[in-house]
Amino acid sequence: MNELDIAARLCIAAATGLAIGFEREWSGHATGPEARFAGIRTFMMTGGVGGIAGWLSSTGDWPLAVVLIAAAAAVAVAGYLAAARRNPSDLDGTTEIAAVMALAIGVVAGRGHLALASGSAAMVLFALGEKAGFRRFVSTVDEAEMRAALQFAVLALVVLPLLPTGPYGPYDAIRPRMIWTVVLILSGVNFAGYLARQALGAARGHLLTGAIGGLVSSTAVTFSYARQSRNEPTHSAPLAAGTIAACTVLLPRVAVVATAMNPEFGPRAALWLLGIFLAGVAVTAFAASRSRGDVADQPPAEGANPLQLGAAIRMALAFQAVIIVLEAARAWFGEIGVFATAALAGLTDMDALTLSMSRLSRDPNMADTAAAALVIGVVANTVLKGTVAAVLGGAAYRRKVVPALLILAVIGVITLLVLRGG
Fold first, then answer.
1. What are the tens digits of pLDDT across the range 229-245?
2. Hey, CA dihedral for 378, 384, 385, 387, is it positive or negative?
3. On the CB side of 230, how many CA atoms lie within 13 Å of its CA?
4. How confident is the model at residue 407, as a pLDDT?
5. Which residue blocks in 215-349 are alpha helix, DSSP H?
6. What is the rounded CA–CA span in Å between residue 261 and residue 358?
7. Whole-angstrom distance, CA of residue 369 vs CA of residue 372
8. DSSP character for 133?
9. Eight-state DSSP code of residue 297
10. Cα 348 to Cα 307, 338, 390, distances in angstroms
11. Are 98 and 24 in contact (CB under 8 A)?
């Protein structure tokens, strides 16, 4: 290790402390009668001490590194105790903890992990600068949301590690931990959709609420809006735009879930779905421009479960069933069996199909087959929603939704012919 490399590490360590100290002084925590123990210079030197300690530890001189870290940390503790003694009602230790973070980040930089140190400093600065935003967010969280967040934490941090990985059963297709991971993914998506509606409000119109609803279930949006179009025929245009938006949002959701399950498969799935998505965006924009009038949608029901855990478990069980059927179809009929199963699964549950294809794509030889099966499922799902709109929707609603969804289905078929042919 040359001296230039050491100097770069120490400069970055000191610079991260400088940045944190600048925020503390700019926000007024280092000046005035209620000033905390450290300002911009102290923070800069704290980061530098951490950098030197980190460099010493990387050379094997651990005793001196530990002494430096302990001494700097003791200064932060002494500053907190002094502030608490001066004003017992003020027990805010944010500045002192920020100093400890500057020290720790300095150690990381001193050991040569410069990207990690820079990213950590950015997160600390974000947390310090967004105090008011965090408090506003906390004030908006109600009991149901807090309970859902705690439930999700238990499901992810307690239940998931206890489950066996498998595989078990026919075709080695039963994997309890993977299935529970599916439950977590779906519950997380449901929770995100719930929070989005709460944050944006219910008065933004059918287009926006339809798109948000598509994060959870575009089929449910289609059923709901089709029925509503019969009761409120004057609002057929915005209801139709919301339905098409929900069907379009399904496509990036499929790509995101596929990426979460198999990062290598995600970009391939997105490429195969890109044509349908672009067509959906164009058709949605056209429908929105032709809509006249709007009516506020109803907010989430009081006391509703934001996680929709029961629905997520049912989807995960459907996913498990689809996996077994897919493995059997693949063993018996090869690629044709996968495509037939994809069409049936698309009619009932795109999430189960997406997760199944993500698993199938782990075999590099089956990646294109899995992507094509996703497109087949999307086409089948789009045809189903077009049928729902035609049967349940009012006349004006049908005239707008059915041709739009037909366009998406045709683009899907063309995608299959082009990419499979290529």
1. 887 787 778 788 888 88
2. positive
3. 11
4. 92
5. 218-231, 236-261, 266-290, 309-333, 335-348
6. 6
7. 5
8. H
9. P
10. 21, 16, 18
11. yes
Phi/psi for 27 (5° steps) reads -80, -5
Q: CA 179, CA 244: separation in Å to the nearest integer? A: 31
Q: Contact, 384 vs 412, CB < 8 A?
A: no
Rounded to an integer, what distance in angstroms lies between the CA atom of residue 308 and that of residue 148?
9
d(CA 12, CA 163): 43
At 349 the three-state DSSP class reads coil
pTM value is 0.49
What pLDDT is recorded for position 148?
A: 74
Residue 301 CB coordination number (10 Å): 7
Based on its alpha-carbon atoms, the radius of gyration of the chain, rounded to whole angstroms, reads 28
| From 112-121, 149-158, 252-261, 322-331, the region with the lowest mean pLDDT | 322-331
Other beta carbons within 10 angstroms of residue 149's beta carbon come to: 15
Mean pLDDT value across residues 365-393 = 84
Residue 138 has pLDDT above 50, yes or no: yes
Secondary structure (3-state) at 178: helix
Joined together, the tokens standing for residue 184 give: 């977590």
CA torsion, ordered 136, 139, 145, 147, to nearest 10 deg: 130
Stronger pLDDT, 45 or 369, i.e. the higher one: 45
Residue 360: the pLDDT is 78
Which tokens in the block code for residue 142? Answer: 């109600």
As a whole number of angstroms, the longest Cα–Cα distance in the chain is: 80
**How do residues 193-203 score in pLDDT, each as one tens digit?**
566 556 654 43
Residues in the chain: 422
Write the DSSP string, 254-290. HHHHHHHH-TTTHHHHHHHHHHHHHHHHHHHHHHHHH
Looking at residue 278, what is its pLDDT? 92
